[in-house]
Amino acid sequence: MSDRVLITDAGFGPVDPAERYLDFADLEAAPGALRVDLGPETDPATLTPHLAQIQTIRIAFPAVSDGRGFTLARTLRRMGFAGRLRAAGQLIPEQYPMARACGFDEVEIDAARAQRQPEADWRAAAGRQGYLARLRRPAA
Amino acid sequence: MYAYSDFDESFVRNRVRQFRDQVERRIDGRLSEDEFKPLRLMNGLYLQLHAYMLRVAIPYGTLDARQMRQLATISERWDRGYGHFTTRQNIQFNWPKLRDVPDMLDALADVGMHAIQTSGNCVRNVTSDHFAGAAADEIADPRPYAELLRQWSSDHPEFQYLPRKFKIAITGATADRAVTRAHDIGLRVVARDGAVGFEVSVGGGLGRTPMIGRVIRDFLPEADLVPYVEAVLGVYNQLGRRDNKYKARIKIAVHEMGLDTIRDLVEARFAETRSEFPGAEAALAEIRAAFRAPDFRAGGTAIPSGSPAFRAWTDTNLAPHRREDHAIVTVSLKTPGQQPGDASADQMRAIADLAETYGYDEIRISHRQNVILPHVRKDDLPAVFEALAAAGLAAANAGLISDIIACPGMDYCALATARSIPVAQEIAVLFETLDLAHEVGPLRLNVSGCINACGHHHVADIGILGLERAGVETYQITLGGDPTERIAIGERTGPGFAADEIVGAVERIVTAYLELRDSADETFAEAYRRLGLAPFQKALYSEESRENAA
């Protein structure tokens, strides 16, 4: 779907219509996939043998109230995943800085949401930082 | 007392600005109701039975005179001239208008207060011992740790959309006055080989499935507090059930998966998080400096003599201070007949004045819905008592049967199935009229107006739970609950009682206790542990006892 919108720190952009994502369930049958879709319930440990060659992981957010994807992203980063991490689905502008702080690079939403929640709302929310950055600051 | 840093100040101001914008976006449709609801809740705003309700955070129950006066002002300007102190050491305003809320939040920010994360499926206000920093039995002041956790949890990017709410309580004393084992995480300061750390319990909670927290770590070094709690939350966020909100708390995960499984998962995650907070130590040091004890003025170590009313009050409403020439004063918000936990604007100002004049500008709110003046010179007690009496705040009943915890119940709350305030009022008035409360001695009586148990009925000597059966209010009784370090969930006595029977039922229980106790020194809790449920059931349900009472 080319009318989906990709949100990065640079603002709104189009999703590359040529991108194809492999379902996580099919990963064993097709090792070497570059782009993988994950549901929020995924046990990240099952990805260990594949992490090195995956370029992009797209994590589904099935509802605004479902924050599992944030923890999944943190876990993948802790496991050393250095590729692209995308949060996709039901997210609101308030969740953009949360996604970034949890290790996501970008957020993908559908056209209807992009129209209802325009770029300015996402820009206004971006960059918000709470206390955590201070607690994670290097020791003096 | 902890004073806001520039960072706190700008964080809170930004949140108010953001909330103002969120209200706008809800009104013009950019946010749907489903999207706005978690934002509204994590800013403290509930939709209640008759109106919105704003729940203001009083972190670990600590505030100063300036803040108390501002609460008074807010209650007069945007509410009905009073506020309701809660079992989570917060204050609720029951009648705000949605369009006024951002202004109320700005007024709070003016005195370093906010309503952040007092509601919603996130880490809630961290609660603590209301005698913190003053108690004679304290190992370490728990408030710096509570403040550290407040900072850590505020707007934590990973944990704002949890399966369900998450409550943390911490105590630094040997007596547990914070009901820590009834929290998702309970922390108890312990010393081992000269080092300070925590005993950590998980999976406690009241509500419809009451469970006592289980010890997941018997000693957690102080430096590991933030990364360990981060690990617990990470495990919970991933595994907590999202298919059924009644099974979504961490206590259900612990129950279904087993403590050992949860512990292994937490420890594995903790191995990763442990090195992620190099700034926590410096933050704790800064916070601790801000919690410096006041410059105490020395005085006499005896309680001055006074009228019988003064003596009755000092008998019940004082607790031992760590200095012999000071005492901890409980200001009862339970004058028989009043709504438990409510304070008028004038009463809030009277308390603020006393805190300033006699209390080193320190005030606490207790989970028993009273106000505490933690540091009062014994020499000043008569003056404090006189001023409290003038403000209608000198009820000599702290810890007695009329010192009732009660949730707002059906008079305010959208979830309630029965009224709780009138029941509490009638019981308090009855024992006042009979002049029996002092004779009965220490007794915790708590009332909840629904199964969610905000009134802590499970952990009361006498717990009352209001339910609705076929359109009629009915009240179930539990006995033998205990909120302290001996924590216990009360046992149900049997069938419930109608609204016009419940007060008489309580009277029969108390009468039975007075007849059965070894001596006046045996408290209700002790007598119950010795005798068990049976004699009280007999008093409640036998034909004979009902006739005698009638």
UniProtKB/TrEMBL annotation, chain A:
InterPro entries: UCP030820 (IPR008318). Pfam families: DUF934. This is Uncharacterized protein DUF934.
Automatic annotation (TrEMBL), chain B:
One of its GO terms (molecular function) is metal ion binding. Residues 119-271, 443-543 form the Nitrite/sulphite reductase 4Fe-4S domain. Keywords: 4Fe-4S, Heme, Iron, Iron-sulfur, Metal-binding, Oxidoreductase. The keyword 4Fe-4S applies. Gene3D superfamilies: 3.90.480.20, Sulfite Reductase Hemoprotein, domain 1. Residues 52-110, 322-391 form the Nitrite/Sulfite reductase ferredoxin-like domain. It holds the Pfam family NIR_SIR_ferr. InterPro entries: NIR_SIR_4Fe-4S, NiRdtase/SiRdtase_haem-b_fer, Nit/Sulf_reduc_fer-like_dom_sf, NO2/SO3_Rdtase_4Fe4S_dom, NO2/SO3_Rdtase_4Fe4S_sf, NO2/SO3_Rdtase_FeS/sirohaem_BS. The keyword Iron applies. This is Sulfite reductase (NADPH) hemoprotein beta-component. It comes from Rhodovulum kholense.
